[in-house]
Amino acid sequence: MSANTLSAGSEFFRKLLRFHPNSSTRTTSGALLYVRCARRHYLQCTLDDHVDNWPDNRFWDELKRRLDPRAADDLVIGPSIEKSIAPLRSFVAEPMRFGRLFLAGDAAHIVPPTGAKGLNLAASDVHYLANAFKEFYLDGSDAGIDDYSRKALLRVWKAERFSWWMTSVLHRFPGTDEFTSRIQRAELSYLVNSDAATRSLSENYVGLPF
Fold this sequence. Notes:
The chain is mainly alpha-helical. It has helices spanning 26-29, 56-65, 69-74, 118-139, 143-170, 178-193, 195-206, and strands at residues 2-5, 17-18, 32-33, 40-42, 80-84, 91-92, 97-98, 101-102, 109-110.
């Protein structure tokens, strides 16, 4: 479940990662990655749920339950302008070129919203493709368009890996047992308490260079 709002926070992160401690709610509303400066907020729900079951008051209440007290108190809320239920899925079309057809963005790859990589990947695809077209039309060289798919996919697969990893850490799936749940908690604890882990997370979350 995602909700777009007109509210915005003043800090980039308040609390990096958090599971709500009440395990009875985790199977339906799940985990949350909360980005303060973003205007899109996500809560986990089942695929057979419906947006009509999530009026704004319920959404904000559930969101606040998953934040630390300071972040919940500082949360600026407002009426949502859009709500949707997004299935968590990953997809890559490889290669990203078929003759004279070049794929970019969502036409070439889908990532779950957990890693926030969709627009980032689309921008890098366009960057590579624009440079390739420039070489082709201005310099008469095929090198850029011939190498476009290989170059773009190197970055695509890194982002797919990161988004898959973030999803596996932050969400509960049908059949999740206690062992898997404890592994998730251990991973979260490591991320919050390790400088090396947070640096790696930051590098991947902000976006790898291109």
